[in-house]
Amino acid sequence: MLTIKFGLWIQDHDMDELYKLDGPVFTRWLPDGENDALKVTIDSQSSEVYLWFERHGFIDDSGFIRYEHKRFEIDPNILPRQEKVYAGALYGKIILNEISEDQVSALINSEVESKEYEALGKLVLKKILDPVLIQFTKLLKDTYGQYWIEVYKPFDSRNLALSNHCSRLNMKWHLSDEESGDFSPGKKENQTISFEAVSSQTEEYIDQDAWFHLQSLLNNKFEVSLSSAFASRANKLLEEGRYSHSLLESVTAIELSIEEYIRRSISSAPELEEYMRSFWNNPLPTRISLVASLAGADTNDISLSISGIKERNKFVHDGKDPDSSVSGLVDALLRTISHLNNNQELRFPSASMSNALTDAE
């Protein structure tokens, strides 16, 4: 059995400094390292992936938990009182239950450029770790709305050598107490890592239930919907005060969410699709009124969503640039989208919201 541990920062490096946070933001709880690790089983490769966050930080003089990567001084009794807690870097490990003798020999003898070592490295990344990290970071960013998270970029030999990519993940292999080392397949090259640019309450952050729910989403290969990605971006743009862009994105998101909702509803009876053709010819406000009402969305949110569409149309057709007054309309659009996304509740947290200590209840 081979164990490979890793760790990486997952925040978006191209974010404005104002919105750069120390990893995901939890509320009133924080995973306790490997004790609360999420387990993802990869049956096709006879392996498991475990993901967790450590409780980095300390308690300052005012009683707040402050994130500091090199300190582990968090009192778990304080956690239920703090509304925002920063999780920092992501940690994890891969367990391969089947490994060949040639691969074991290549690891122990540091034959980093051997075909056995390189094949093992590509298998670990492409078949096991990369798909899990992509799915996990997408869920954090688009389903849980933590828009300051960067979606993980998988191994691509055109951008980064195999050895460099593994170094970026701080990968270490372990076979026994005497047999361990850096997981560094292939020749290391002189390359630098490049990064592509890419109004809420505390319940919008990640709580204990949400963290463990991630495990079922990961193991069930839950796919983040396109409407969720647009909605998360709309929330980010709203936070940044880019009201026109936020309004455009949120209206696009609700249009997509209506289509996704109907497709899910008739997925077991595709013959009904031809009867829906006339429905798509209706104006967007009509489609929202009908679908969202039948889905049980809040009627006030539906009305505000329609007002948001009208403001979007004024901007697109008449050039009327929206201001902060549309914030409530965007919020209503996002709440309606979350309601229509009934296969997974969406969250829309804030990067700039102030912190607080309150009663645990």
Topology:
Elements: E1 2-8, E2 25-26, E3 38-42, E4 47-53, E5 58-59, E6 65-66, E7 85-86, E8 90-96, H1 101-108, H2 115-143, H3 162-168, E9 172-174, E10 180-182, H4 208-219, H5 226-239, H6 243-265, H7 284-294, H8 299-318, H9 327-340
Antiparallel strand pairs: 1-8, 1-9, 2-7, 3-4, 4-8, 5-6, 9-10
Précis, in short:
This protein is an alpha+beta fold and 361 residues long.
Please characterize this protein's 3D structure.
This protein is an alpha+beta fold and 361 residues long. The strands form 3 sheets. A 6-stranded antiparallel sheet has the order 3-4-8-1-9-10. It has a two-stranded antiparallel sheet with strand order 2-7. Helix 5 runs antiparallel to helix 9 and helix 7 (284-294) packs antiparallel against helix 8 (299-318). It folds into 2 domains: 2-217, no CATH class; 225-340. The chain contains 9 helices and 10 strands. It has helices at residues 101-108, 115-143, 162-168, 208-219, 226-239, 243-265, 284-294, 299-318, 327-340, and strands at 2-8, 25-26, 38-42, 47-53, 58-59, 65-66, 85-86, 90-96, 172-174, 180-182.
